[in-house]
Amino acid sequence: xxxxxxxxxxxxxxxxxxxxxxxxxxxxxxxxxxxxxxxxxxxxxxxxxxxxxxxxxxxxxxxxxxxxxxxxxxxxxxxxxxxxxxxxxxxxxxxxxxxxxxxxxxxxxxxxxxxxxxxxxxxxxxxxxxxxxxxxxxxxxxxxxxxxxxxxxxxxxxxxxxxxxxxxxxxxxxxxxxxxxxxxxxxxxxxxxxxxxxxxxxxxxxxxxxxxxxxxxxxxxxxxxxxxxxxxxxxxxxxxxxxxxx
Length: 246
Fold this sequence. Notes:
Layout: H1 6-27, H2 35-41, H3 45-48, H4 59-80, H5 86-96, H6 99-109, H7 125-128, H8 130-146, H9 148-164, H10 166-171, H11 175-186, E1 192-199, E2 206-213, E3 217-223, H12 226-240
Helix pairs in contact: 1-2, 2-8, 4-5, 4-8, 4-9, 6-8, 8-9, 11-12
């Protein structure tokens, strides 16, 4: 029986990974000059701590990508809203580069499928920002490899629907998670959701959902799908509870 050389096995695994990353980059319309930059964008610190093959993790790329993202969004908003005040522009920018929006973009792009995580990385608070951090690291890698124009293109391509559609922007605000945290802190329990009814034709359905906290509080929400309806119900409940973010 011929034993596999561990070094050859690792080299083969790396070759497959780089090939997959090249295919992913091409799906974004990008041909990396240094594919290792893209690879680094997906090296989480928990993985780098457990493996010697990488000298650094993606946090420096994330730092760079965050700055590039902020500049591109600021310039876009400055041009789109010539009469908006500094405060109005800042509030809109904050919404567009929020963790929930960037997490949503990351999910759409399937970034988490490429990340290298350590064995000890669980589902704690750091995981809530994983998608957003990956998108920022990706932007940092694109900027270093392709320049500002390419980075701006991929940012605006993915953010434009949120910038031009207030309903889309509002839909990704995670009211359900906020309500869950409030309930655990104040009531030592979790809210319960129930689908009340569906109405309308298949192509334009409306969903109505109720949310309840024990037998003390109950309210409803509506939306074009169950997820949106639950978010609306959670937002209404937060308002009942006097939570400003709701």
